[in-house]
């Protein structure tokens, strides 16, 4: 994934480096040229000094008839200046020790370069003031520019060493400049999937205003689209509820009039029941939607709730001769009891419907630290691993209406379960059953530690439930 911050840092750092390099090269060349002119002027000053000291030795040198060896001249930059003194006939009169005993270059006035003694030398050839002799001054190039290069490198090194620091500064400045983008991304990331309110544009940088406006336009369109969908589903379900109930009554009357009932009438009854089930599921899905949820969260004993729900499903279990096992700790969660009943009802109903006759179902509740886990496991056909995420989509069924269990359904049960799970801040996981085959559904809640009052309320409600059948029987006898 490309990073704008990294791209800008690399680009700006490359531009700064290139600019520094060009400036350093130009500065180096300019400084070397100026240093060369300065050293040339110093060589000419040495010529003036030689004009002042050497002509007085001319008669003495000619009397000796040999070449006078003189020490080299020292320059301010630490370099040594070698020289030769020649008469107009080309006779060598004097030289420094490092100069060869022969002419190093033709007697042509001016500056030039020559190679000897394994070095490159900068020469100044000029006649003496009286025009009777010539001076050849020579300075090694490596010594000549040593000081200049040292000064230039001292100026370049800080620029090179500053490049990483400049990169860090650019990175930090861009980080500060891009903070509004990070805040916008974090705001969108922390939003719930159902939160489609417009983004705040207060104190928003100009560069992000257009992006924010486009995002708000998209959120408004999505909100309107979802609202239309929800209104249609809810209104359609409410409007269909009454005619379906009437149709169900007429269908039951028709079956009572037929003895035995016709196959077409039985199919009609099954279709009406399926339509009634679909409408009820749509209404339930709408009631558990986050924006319509009107539940009250309170401490709930999940284990007791599950025991009661298993008892309510006893007829369905007996009809298919299924064996159900329950094992659970005393687990408490903070939740809405009707919503939790809906959740477990869908999970247990699915397990009963999709498990074959004489099948096995296991329900477990247990607490580990701050988590409470509800498990519903069966040995039915299960769900292929690749489709376990999709089963939470609305109206999605594994293999569609051609499910190998031949069990009717509308594909909303697990969607409702997922909504209830999300409302409680829990998480749900579908895995392979610990039986020889089948499905294991695990729902993980945050544990709640019950207070003494919660325990008293539980005992009171348990007493009422245990006593109510006796009271009903007494009232019946009266």
Please describe the structure with a list of short key phrases separated by commas or semicolons.
Beta-Lactamase; 14 strands; disordered C terminus; alpha+beta; five-stranded mixed beta sheet; single chain; 478 residues
What's a concise summary of this model?
The chain is α+β, with helices and mostly antiparallel strands and 478 residues long.
Can you offer a commentary on this structure?
With 478 residues, the chain is of the alpha+beta class. It folds into three domains: 4-153, Beta-Lactamase; 193-292, Helix Hairpins; 294-402 and 409-467, Histidine kinase-like ATPase, C-terminal domain (Heat Shock Protein 90, 2-Layer Sandwich), CATH 3.30.565.10. It is built from twelve helices and 14 strands. The strands form three sheets. Strands 1, 2, 3, 4, 5, 6 and 7 form a seven-stranded mixed beta sheet that branches. α10 packs antiparallel against α11. The longest helix has 52 residues, at 206-257. It is rod-shaped. Residues 467-478 have low confidence and may be disordered.
Helix proportion = 40-55%
Strand count: 14
The appropriate CATH architecture of the largest domain is: 2-Layer Sandwich
Poorly predicted spans: 467-478
How many DSSP helices?
12
Element string (H = helix, E = strand):
HHEEEEEEEHHHHHEHHEEHEEHEEH
Sheet of most strands: 7 strands, mixed
Strand content: 15-25%
For the termini, the CA-CA separation is: 79 Å
CATH class label of the largest domain:
Alpha Beta
């Amino acid at each position: 994934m490309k990073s704008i911050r990294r791209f800008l840092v690399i680009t700006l750092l490359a531009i700064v480096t290139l600019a520094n390099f060009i400036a350093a090269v130009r500065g180096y060349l300019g400084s070397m040229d100026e240093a060369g002119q300065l050293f040339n002027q110093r060589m000419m000053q040495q010529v003036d000094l030689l004009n002042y000291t050497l002509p007085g030795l001319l008669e003495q040198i000619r009397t000796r008839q040999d070449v006078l060896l003189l020490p080299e001249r020292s320059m301010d930059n630490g370099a040594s200046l070698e020289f030769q003194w020649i008469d107009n006939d080309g006779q060598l009169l004097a030289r420094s020790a490092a100069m060869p005993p022969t002419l190093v270059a033709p007697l042509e006035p001016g500056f030039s370069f020559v190679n000897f003694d394994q070095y490159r030398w900068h020469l100044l050839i000029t006649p003496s003031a009286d025009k009777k002799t010539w001076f050849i001054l020579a300075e090694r190039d490596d010594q000549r520019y040593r000081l200049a290069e040292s000064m230039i490198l001292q100026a370049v090194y800080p620029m090179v060493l500053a490049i990483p620091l400049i990169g860090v500064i650019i990175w930090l400045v861009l980080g500060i400049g891009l903070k509004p983008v990070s805040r916008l991304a974090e705001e969108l990331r922390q939003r719930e999937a159902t939160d489609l309110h417009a983004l705040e544009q207060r104190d928003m940088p100009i560069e992000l205003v257009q992006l924010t406006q486009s995002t708000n336009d998209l959120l408004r369109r999505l909100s309107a689209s979802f609202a239309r969908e929800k209104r249609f589903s809810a209104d359609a379900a409410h409007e269909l509820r009454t005619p379906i109930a009437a149709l169900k009554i007429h269908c039951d009357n028709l079956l009572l009039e037929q003895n035995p009932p016709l196959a077409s009438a039985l199919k009609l009854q099954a279709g009406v029941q399926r339509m009634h089930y679909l409408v009820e599921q749509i209404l339930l899905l709408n009631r558990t939607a986050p924006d319509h949820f009107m539940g009250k969260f309170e401490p709930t004993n999940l284990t007791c709730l599950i025991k009661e729900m298993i008892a309510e499903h006893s007829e369905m279990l007996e009809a298919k001769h299924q064996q159900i096992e329950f094992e659970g700790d005393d687990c408490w969660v903070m939740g809405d009891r009707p919503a939790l009943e809906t959740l477990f009802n869908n999970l247990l109903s699915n397990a009963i419907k999709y498990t074959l006759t004489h099948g096995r179902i296991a329900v477990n509740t247990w607490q580990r630290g701050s988590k409470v886990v509800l498990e519903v496991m069966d040995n039915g056909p299960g769900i292929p691993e690749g489709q376990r995420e999709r089963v939470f989509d609305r109206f999605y069924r594994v293999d569609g209406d051609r499910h190998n269990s031949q069990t009717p359904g509308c594909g909303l049960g697990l969607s409702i379960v997922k909504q209830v799970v999300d409302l409680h801040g829990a998480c749900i996981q579908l895995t392979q059953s610990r039986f020889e085959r089948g499905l294991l559904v695990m729902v993980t809640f945050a544990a709640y530690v019950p207070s003494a009052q919660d325990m008293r309320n539980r005992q009171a409600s348990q007493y009422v439930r245990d006593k109510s059948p006796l009271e009903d029987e007494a009232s019946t006898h009266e």
